[in-house]
Amino acid sequence: MAGRHATLLRHADRRIDDGEALALARLALTLAGKGLADRRVLGAIETLPRSLFVAATHRDRALEDRPVPIECGQTSDAPSVQALALQAAEILPEHRILEIGTGSGWGTALLAGLCTKVYTVERFRTLADLAFERFSTLGLDNVVPSVHDWLEGFARHAPFHRILLDGALEEVPRALLDQLAPQGILVAAIGRAREPQRLTRWIRLETGFVREDVGPTRRVALISGRACAL
Is 193's pLDDT higher than 80? Predict the structure, then answer.
């Protein structure tokens, strides 16, 4: 078990029992059976209880490969969807990563166990505050959260080795692509909500950007602007 993942588990084991630990192991095996081969990603999922990031009424569903409702009318993606995006990003321990869409914070915490620093942007203050409490509970000290229009990115901390969009949109804003470091990778679902989407990645080369298709996916739509009411 990697050092940071062990730390996450030590903080979390006061809140999980052997049954949930077994369920997390089964979940990792299920994802491996679906073709997800990145051992670091699977290890992160196996050692980070997803149930800590959802309401008590949905905790049983958190142990399955399915989406889960969260606050502000939003949804936490199924683990297989999240894992596929992480695998496509080819994350290394030394990377600095920008995450667009903090959500429940589960994906952020996975990233925190895979890289040096995570900068995460959320448009809902309620979600950001709840996620920050969870990061504090887990003792994560390599996450920098912010509440603003997520499609603007986080320019003052750019460039980033990787940028991951936790949602779908029809076209990636140039502002986000410009915040990629040389040889950096941006991963996003392209397509409209409730229509076929493709997980896609952009690689920044000296001559421009190379776009690659990863495969089908299904994510909720990213909406621009900071939410005022929530």
Answer: no
